[in-house]
């Protein structure tokens, strides 16, 4: 029974760490502030088309925010963190000062899609399941051969399903504000960060998050089919 309790505990702790950890780390280690009244009104206007509604908002200062939007200017981050009813919208100042409206709306819509499809919660459960299966193998609660096979199966199914959830989130964002607008937003932010959206291969099979290039390609196909 102790072995079972340990495995369950590992799975639960891992899931909670993935779900709550980013919120705790952001609150503790990032220089955050509440938005001004004008910024809050701007955020509401940008988030409304995609259906994103989060009461708590935290803004992080970015060196050089307010620049001319050149490549590698800043992260332009929009992310919702924390479990349901404790969610916080984090964004960097450059989202409000540097980005054009279409790009910002696309980013907010993409995050709204992830919230609506419970992507973060699914990712936490998937990680917990994989680490729980690993703990069962390490503690010899199950025979190594069958346990390892189960670990691989749980991992592959979890990661495959996670990709489906992310694609569903992107599709919801596309339905709300347009597939091209979301794809353009992804590409614009990648350009600001100085990275090229990559497509996946066998090495990305064990990633819950599909490569950005694949997400952009799907959005472009969706836009073309809608024409």
Write the layout of secondary structure elements.
Blueprint (H helix, E strand, L loop, with lengths): L1 H28 L2 E2 L3 H11 L8 E5 L17 E4 L6 E5 H5 L3 H16 L2 H20 L5 H34 L1 H15 L18 H15 L1
Parallel strand pairs: 2-4
Antiparallel strand pairs: 1-2, 3-4
Helix pairs in contact: 1-5, 4-6, 4-7, 5-6, 6-7, 6-8, 7-8
Q: What share of the residues lie within helices?
A: 55-70%
Element string (H = helix, E = strand): HEHEEEHHHHHH
Give the oligomeric state of the chains in this entry, treating copies of one chain as homo and distinct chains as hetero.
single chain
User: Would you identify the regions where 5 or more consecutive residues have pLDDT less than 50?
Assistant: 65-71
Number of beta-strand segments: 4
Order of strands in the sheet with most strands: 1-2-4-3
Overall mean confidence score, pLDDT: 85
How far apart the termini lie comes to 59 Å
Largest sheet: 4 strands, mixed
Query: In terms of structural class, how would the helical and strand content be classed?
Result: alpha+beta
Shape: globular
Number of helices: 8
Radius of gyration: 19 Å
Strand content: 5-15%
Molecular structure report:
By secondary structure, the protein is α+β, with helices and mostly antiparallel strands. 63% of the residues lie in helices and 7% in strands. Residues 65-71 have low confidence and may be disordered.
What's the short version?
The chain is of the alpha+beta class and 227 residues long.
List its traits.
227 residues, alpha+beta, 4-stranded mixed β-sheet, 4 strands, 63% helix
């Amino acid at each position: 029974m102790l072995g079972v309790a340990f495995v369950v505990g590992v799975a639960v702790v891992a899931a909670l760490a993935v779900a709550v950890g980013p919120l705790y780390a952001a609150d503790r280690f990032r220089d955050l502030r509440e938005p001004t009244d004008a910024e809050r009104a701007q955020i509401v206007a940008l988030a409304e088309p995609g259906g994103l509604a989060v009461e708590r908002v935290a803004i992080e200062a970015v060196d050089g925010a307010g620049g001319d939007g050149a490549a590698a200017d800043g992260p332009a981050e929009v992310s919702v963190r924390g479990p349901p009813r404790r969610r916080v919208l984090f964004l960097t100042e450059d989202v409000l000062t540097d980005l054009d409206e279409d790009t910002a709306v696309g980013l907010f819509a993409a995050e709204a899609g992830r919230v609506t499809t419970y992507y973060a919660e699914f990712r936490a459960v998937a990680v917990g399941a994989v680490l729980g299966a690993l703990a069962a193998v390490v503690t010899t609660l199950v025979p190594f051969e069958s346990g390892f096979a189960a670990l691989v199966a749980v991992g592959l199914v979890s990661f495959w399903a996670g990709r489906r959830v992310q694609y569903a989130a992107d599709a919801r964002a596309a339905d709300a504000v347009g597939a091209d607008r979301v794809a353009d937003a992804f590409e614009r932010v990648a350009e600001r960060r100085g990275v090229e959206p990559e497509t996946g291969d066998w090495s990305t099979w064990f990633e819950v998050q599909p490569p950005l290039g694949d997400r952009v390609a799907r959005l472009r196909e969706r836009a073309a089919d809608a024409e």
